[in-house]
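Example 3.2
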Amino acid sequence: MNAIPPRFVILRHTPGSEGTRSQEPSEPVPTHFDWMFERDGVLKTWATEPLESFAEGVSTKVEKLADHRVHYLDFQGDVGGDRGEVRQVIAGHFRVIEIDTELFVAEITWRDAQGRMQSRVVEIAAGYLELKSGSASAASP
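Structure, written as tokens:
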């Protein structure tokens, strides 16, 4: 019996007035993408600025966030508590290629708006997220 691959989702998070990541309310969080990967009963989560494209070669700064509830895999709308709203950008499945405390590499697959399968390798390390060719062998050592 084949196991169902774990899921991932990228959400566009438009924060509300309580959308801060520090104790300083004067530091509002801008609209961003939440990259969420299902692992060990939670969503491992990172934030990036909104991307215009998911083409290979895209590289952007990334911030590790606290784990989120798996409920966000299927959730869209008002987060509550004046923390803003989220809208799904893409959703699909992923396969871990490499993972440790400083590195997360996974092959992600999803269907685009035209129904075509898309695949990229996501590498998150040293404060950056990079999208690479969809071939996992390209990212393997």
